[in-house]
Write a structure and sequence with these properties.
Blueprint: H1 2-13, E1 42-45, H2 50-63, E2 67-70, E3 86-90, E4 97-100, E5 105-109, H3 114-122, E6 127-128, H4 140-145, H5 153-156, E7 163-169, E8 175-179, H6 191-195, E9 204-211, E10 213-214, E11 218-226, H7 229-241, E12 248-253, H8 254-264, E13 275-283, H9 286-302, E14 309-311, H10 314-325, H11 327-331, E15 335-342, H12 348-362, E16 365-371, E17 376-382, H13 387-404, H14 420-426, H15 429-442
Parallel strand pairs: 1-3, 2-3
Antiparallel strand pairs: 4-5, 5-9, 6-10, 7-8, 7-9, 11-13, 11-14, 12-13, 12-16, 15-17, 16-17
Helix pairs in contact: 1-2, 7-12, 8-10, 12-13
């Protein structure tokens, strides 16, 4: 069936709209040891307009051919990996971007990259897009489809908080506009926010209207090492209760810091201790930045912080952020899986402490880091002897503990395919049943990203 419709697809997008290098579109950043094997019998289609997407989906729906939407390929849950022969819909050529300074919004086609958006906004004094949800090569459509988070969620929220409107194409080929350049809208059920985070299983996002805000002030980046993990993590809720709302509060095992140093070639300001916090604060001027930094230092020292190092210059702060951001790159070759659970902030110490103890008991190496300010803990499970037996034991324990603490198994990476069974076992059965019914209503022929999130 697939070969029969390639000619029809070519009529829609032209020869230049069909990729020859199919292998470049089969996998995302999901760790190799847990990612599914991709189906190689696919056609990679690169539309330039929503109307082309509409025609492709209408054809696929009529022929019941699976369609997997692909953005920048930076996902970590196998969401962009085709599991069966079909169409891979790459959004890379849909990259038009408009900044509307009167309405304080950016109108982005789905293929606009985060880097492209940030660079364009930088040209306009007084405006900003504060979230920084991951790799700057990620595309806006994918960031919205996965409701991406990132380090700055503590103060500025996640992608969902910035989406005002969307253009989407339904599996039937119908083009639907939701929301717009408005702040308030309670007209009927909120379909737009249902589609945010749906991981390409309900509709194809082709255009997004993003809210922009006035440019914030300057920043300092604090590095705070501790001898004990418990002391580092218990400092986080104390900072938030004090009335200080940092731009970011990141927690890192010292081994994770070393991995970031190794891949960047840059130096962290302190080598010792068991755990470190990296705290980014904002202020209108230097006096406010100094005051906030001093208040955090006092709180940290009460919890046995070894010292407090302050990065002031743009280069110092960029180097620290690079080390934190590239931890995964530094451990990619030895990583079995990367968990990204969400727990209540006050439960982080209990969660990390118990997970470390259980990891020692089963003989598996796990590094912890993540967005401590919003309860999002990342756990690198590293390859050891017999990891195939030890890894499932640790994951099951960790996800069971998450559920007990009132959290969830994924905070920003999504369910995709690698966490689907875990979602079934941790969410209420009725919730899963409702998700399946929603999937059937939007996509009765199950052509969009089949096998991801829920099975129908």
């Amino acid at each position: 069936m697939l070969r029969e419709i390639v000619e029809e697809i070519e009529k829609i997008v032209g020869k230049e709209g069909i990729a020859k290098n199919v292998e470049d579109y089969l996998y995302d950043e999901t760790p190799k040891r847990v990612r599914p094997k991709a189906a190689e019998d696919v056609v990679v289609v690169k539309p330039k307009r929503s109307e082309e997407v509409s025609k492709i989906l209408k054809l696929a729906n009529e022929k019941k051919v699976p369609v997997v939407v692909r953005g920048g390929g930076t996902g970590l849950s196998g969401g962009a990996i085709p599991l069966s022969p079909g169409i891979v819909l790459s959004m890379e050529r849909m990259n038009k971007l408009e900044i509307d300074t009167e309405n304080l919004v950016a109108v982005c086609e789905a293929g606009v990259t985060l880097r492209q958006l940030l660079e364009e906004i930088d040209k306009i004094p007084g405006l900003s897009f504060p979230p920084h949800p991951g790799h700057e090569g990620a595309q806006i459509g994918g960031l919205v489809a996965n409701n991406a988070g990132g380090a700055r969620a503590v103060k500025y929220g996640i992608m969902r908080n910035y989406v005002l409107g969307m253009e989407v194409v339904l599996p039937s080929g119908e083009i639907l506009n939701l929301g717009g350049k408005v702040i308030k809208n309670v007209t009927g059920y909120d379909l737009m926010h249902l589609l945010i985070g749906s991981e390409g299983t309900l509709a194809v996002i082709t255009k997004v209207v993003l809210k922009l805000i006035p440019e914030p002030g300057g920043t300092y980046t604090l590095v705070v090492p501790f001898e004990r993990t418990e002391d580092a993590i218990k400092t986080v809720p104390q900072i938030l209760r004090s009335g200080i709302v940092p731009l970011a509060i990141e927690y890192m095992d010292v081994e994770a810091v070393k991995a970031g140093e190794a891949v960047t070639g840059k130096r962290w300001p302190y080598e010792g201790g068991e755990a470190h916090l990296m705290i980014i604060v904002e202020g209108r001027d230097e006096d406010e930045l100094l005051k906030v930094s001093e208040d955090i230092e006092k709180l940290a020292k009460k919890n046995n912080a070894i010292d407090v190092f302050v990065g002031v210059s743009r280069k110092e702060q960029r180097d620290l952020l690079d080390i934190r951001s590239l931890i995964y790159e530094g451990m990619r070759d030895v990583t079995v899986d990367l968990l990204d659970v969400s727990v209540p902030i006050a439960s982080i110490p209990e969660y990390v402490t118990k997970c470390k103890k259980f990891a020692e008991e089963v003989g598996i190496k796990v590094l912890h880091y993540g967005h401590a300010g919003d309860g999002n803990v990342h756990q690198h499970i590293l390859e050891v002897d017999d990891w195939e037996e030890k890894y499932p034991k640790f994951k099951n324990y960790a996800f069971g503990l998450v559920k007990k603490l009132g959290g969830y198994i994924t905070a920003e990476h999504g369910v995709g395919v690698v966490k689907k069974e875990d979602m079934y076992s941790t969410l209420p059965q009725k919730a899963v049943e409702l998700m399946k019914e929603i999937k059937r209503i939007f996509d009765p022929n199950n052509i969009l990203n089949p096998g991801k999130v829920v099975d129908v």
